[in-house]
Structure formats: C-alpha cells, structure tokens
C-alpha cells in the first residue's frame, strides 16, 4: 500500500522579528548582494575560484563584516562556487573556470550579528543555449516562490510554485537541500523546501506541510534546479554535492522577510545584476 509522508513541519516554532530585525537584515543582505555584484566583472575564463574567494574575503573585511561560512561546520571558504553539474557547496580552489561554464556563487556575510545569505548564477564567457535556459528558468523559479510569500500563504504554496515552474520546463527540483530560516542564526527553522510533493524511490509520497507564513518571519528561498534527474551524489570531500547523472544544475538564492501584506527581499542587487548576462560599464 502506498505510504504518505507529510514531512514534519520542522517545528512550527520559528522566530519572528520586528523593525530592528528588518533593518539588520537589510544591511547584511545588501552587503552580501554588493559582494556578488563586485564578482560579476571578475568571473571570466581562466580565473581560479580561489581568486574569487580571495576577492570576496577582502571585500568582506573592507566592509567590517564577517564571513558566515569560514569555520562553519569545518568549512574553510568565504564562498561556495558551484559550476556546471555541482549543485551546491562547491569549494573554491586552484581550478580555473573555462569559457562556456555556468556557475553559482553563494555568499553569506554577518553584519552586526545578522546573516545576509544570497547566491546567483554567472556565465563564464558565452553560455550554451541549454545552460542559459536552465539559468533563466531557475531565476524564474526563485521569483515564483518569492511572489507567493505573504502572511497566510503556506510553505507548500512556495514549493508548489517552484516545482510547477521547473517541471513545466522539463527540469527537476533537488530535494536533498532546502532554504532555511535565517536571522541572527545562519540556518534555523523552518526548512523551506522547493517542492510541494514528490514520490521517492520506495514509492512513498512526501508532501510539504501547509505551515502558514506569518509577518516577521525571515528565511531564504534557494531552489536548485537540474536539467536532468533530481538525484544528488556527495563527493568524498564531504561538501561538494553534484548531480548523480552529471546533468547541469543551477541555483539562485535570496534572503527575505514576511511583511504585513507580502515580502521584503533583503538581498536584491543594488545595481540590477540579479540574473546574467551581466553587462558592466
Ligand atoms: N550559503 C549556503 C546556504 O545557502 C550554506 C553554505 S554552508 C557552507 O545556505 F559551509 F557550505 F559554506
Ligand atoms: Co541559504
Ligand atoms: Co547561501
């Protein structure tokens, strides 16, 4: 018989914040967004991901902030750089990016104790048609999820909007990683999954809880969308997650807060560099 699993609401106990929280998150979110803006002109064929991490490190220091990822559960880098078939948590290193790669860059900064967590895709030189389409659909998925957000909408509504859009385009939603509550803590309740339901390999249907959003909640939405199957493989380094079928994958992330009648995105680019191609003068 089919078993149905409504995933535990990851505790309906999450914090809500007032004006001071919104101000703190705005400052942290904008610094994180400016860090990603700064990197837009640096992502070029031949640049090493270590160099990009060094630039982010300097930028964060120069702005009197801290990196939330250095020292986080043993992670040692300022950025996660996840090219091509790397879903998330790619580690910066000596390998250069090459023409035609697409890559996600994810940064989290701490400003006055508040965490600004955001990521975007970048094109290295000219993207292939399929890579460009995956990138654009993933950006749309993020915004389909964001536009649902208001008091009374549910976690399942966010997942539904993202999953429907990804699957209509012939892509799949990664289930093994999700968005999260954010604020004075980097990762906290609730889990923000990017699907409404799915059937696992054992034939069980997993349904996202209909947990209502409330004013003052802070969380990320960060859909990871695969061109092929949704399945993940972890590399031996314990961090790098790749698509099991080696298909291309893309991700965008914003930190946001629930307002009286909608949402405030904390991590929007102040210069409009939200989705590639980035034209910088
Ligand atoms: N910034 C990632 C997120 O979106 C988390 C990175 S944790 C790290 O939640 F340790 F891998 F950096
Ligand atoms: Co996040
Ligand atoms: Co992030």
Q: What is the element layout, followed by pairings?
A:
Blueprint: E1 4-6, H1 19-40, H2 49-62, E2 66-67, E3 79-83, E4 86-88, E5 102-111, E6 114-123, H3 129-147, H4 155-168, E7 172-173, E8 179-181, E9 188-192, E10 197-199, E11 205-207, E12 218-221, E13 224-226, E14 232-234, E15 241-243, E16 249-251, E17 254-258, E18 263-265
Parallel strand pairs: 1-11
Antiparallel strand pairs: 2-5, 3-5, 4-15, 5-6, 7-13, 8-9, 10-11, 12-17, 13-16, 14-15, 17-18
This protein binds 2-amino-4-trifluoromethylsulfanyl-butyric acid and cobalt (II) ion (2 copies).
2-amino-4-trifluoromethylsulfanyl-butyric acid is lined by residues 69, 72-73, 75, 80, 89, 106, 108, 117, 222, 239, 253.
What proportion strand? Answer: 25-35%
Question: Low-confidence parts lasting 5 or more residues at pLDDT below 50?
Answer: none
Instruction: Give the total of beta strands.
Output: 18
The hetero molecules present are: 2-amino-4-trifluoromethylsulfanyl-butyric acid, cobalt (II) ion
Q: The CATH topology, please?
A: Creatine Amidinohydrolase
- Describe the largest sheet: 4 strands, antiparallel
Number of structural units classed as domains: 1
Order of secondary-structure elements: EHHEEEEEHHEEEEEEEEEEEE
Give the mean pLDDT.
Answer: 96
Helix share bin: 10-25%
N-end to C-end Cα span: 61 Å
Note the quaternary state here.
single chain
Based on CA atoms alone, the radius of gyration comes out at: 18 Å
CATH superfamily membership, which one? Creatinase/methionine aminopeptidase superfamily
Give the overall silhouette: globular
């Amino acid at each position: 018989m089919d078993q149905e699993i409504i995933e535990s609401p990851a505790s309906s106990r999450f914090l809500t914040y007032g004006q001071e929280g919104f101000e703190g998150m705005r400052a942290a979110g904008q610094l994180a967004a400016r860090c990603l803006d700064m990197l837009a002109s640096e992502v070029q064929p031949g640049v090493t991901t270590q160099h990009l991490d060094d630039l982010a490190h300097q930028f964060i220091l120069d702005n009197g902030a801290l990196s939330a990822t250095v020292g986080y559960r043993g992670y040692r880098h300022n950025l996660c750089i996840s090219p091509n078939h790397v879903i998330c948590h790619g580690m910066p290193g000596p390998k250069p990016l090459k023409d035609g790669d697409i890559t996600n860059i994810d940064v989290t900064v701490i400003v006055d104790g508040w965490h600004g967590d955001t990521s975007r895709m970048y094109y290295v030189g000219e993207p292939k048609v399929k890579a460009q389409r995956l990138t654009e659909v993933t950006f749309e998925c993020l915004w389909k999820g964001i536009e649902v957000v208001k008091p009374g909408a549910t976690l399942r509504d966010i997942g539904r909007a993202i999953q429907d859009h990804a699957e209509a385009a012939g892509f799949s939603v990664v289930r093994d990683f999700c968005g999260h509550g954010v604020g004075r803590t980097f990762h906290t309740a609730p889990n923000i999954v990017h699907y409404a339901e799915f059937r696992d390999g054992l034939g069980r249907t997993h349904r996202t809880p209909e947990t209502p959003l409330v004013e003052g909640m802070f969380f990320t939405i960060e859909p990871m969308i695969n061109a092929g199957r949704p399945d993940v493989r972890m590399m031996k380094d314990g961090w790098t997650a790749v698509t099991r079928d080696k298909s291309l994958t893309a991700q965008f992330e914003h930190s946001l807060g629930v307002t009286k009648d909608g949402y405030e995105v904390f991590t929007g680019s102040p210069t409009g560099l939200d989705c590639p191609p980035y034209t910088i003068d």
